[in-house]
Amino acid sequence: MAENGRTGTGTSATRTIRPDGVDKVTGRARFGADFNLPGQLIGRVLRSPHPHARIVAIDTSKAEALPGVKAVITRDDFADQPSEFIPAGEMMMNYKDVVRNVLAREKALYEGHAVAAVAATSAAIARRALKLIDVTYEVLPHVIDVVEAMRPGAPLLHDDLFTAGVEPKPDKPSNIAKRVEITLATWMPASPRPTSSSSASSRPRRSIRATSSRTRRWPPSPRTARPSCGAARRATTSCAPTARACWVWTSPRSA
């Protein structure tokens, strides 16, 4: 690695020395977990062994009575939040889901879901305290395939989730959060080619309506779609990375 250098016309394109690089690659660098301070506490988390289970009861009395244990927390230590989307940084967040992901509330929603946590004077005491926490589970059926999860009669993850974008509004909960259907897509007419050099915004381009759906089908219709990854990249900003093929929507007249 070389230091930044300057030439007569400006800064050369060289790589800046990383002062911490050698320590990191040799293992000498110390991180937060490497420090031990007087009086510090060690935290450990108890996680669900089941991918889907109702939490009937949590008894932490034995863990709290263990010498060296300073605190034990469960779902009861967090106030519940209403189901509403609130701006959080650069994205929208539903704090009802956040509370349930920090520590499992009504149910464990996946294997390894945090159920309780302890803080103790040593790692050994913290691990022993976890074994003293008694959690009563009602094991529920589960699926691990997205197609199976969308089928009628599949085990429900959230009892209060109703599919949005469906008319009439469903009266039964579902694992599908939202459904979006695109029934028609047409090409925008291409503008004439410019006769002289101009900005990129004036260049002829074709665009296509975008779709975002958890239940979209590939292809949408044999008569209104044709496979063409190259054309899709020219018509849109990107191809769908999860699709088995890129499809370009065209009107039946131009198909």
| Backbone structural class | alpha+beta
- Largest sheet: number of strands, sense, barrel closure: 3 strands, antiparallel
The total count of strands amounts to: 12
CATH topology (level 3) name of the largest domain: Aldehyde Oxidoreductase, domain 3
Q: Could you say which overall geometry the principal axes of the C-alpha atoms support?
A: flat
- Which percent band covers the strand fraction? 15-25%
| Proportion in helices | 10-25%
Which key features would you list for this structure?
255 residues, alpha+beta, 3 domains, 6 helices
Task: Summarize it.
This protein has 255 residues and is α+β, with helices and mostly antiparallel strands. It has helices at 21-26, 61-65, 95-102, 123-132, 146-150, 229-235; strands at 6-7, 10-11, 42-47, 53-59, 69-73, 85-88, 91-94, 107-108, 114-120, 134-139, 225-227, 247-249. It has 3 domains: 39-139, Alpha-Beta Complex (Aldehyde Oxidoreductase, domain 3); 144-179, no CATH class; 180-191 and 207-255, no CATH class.
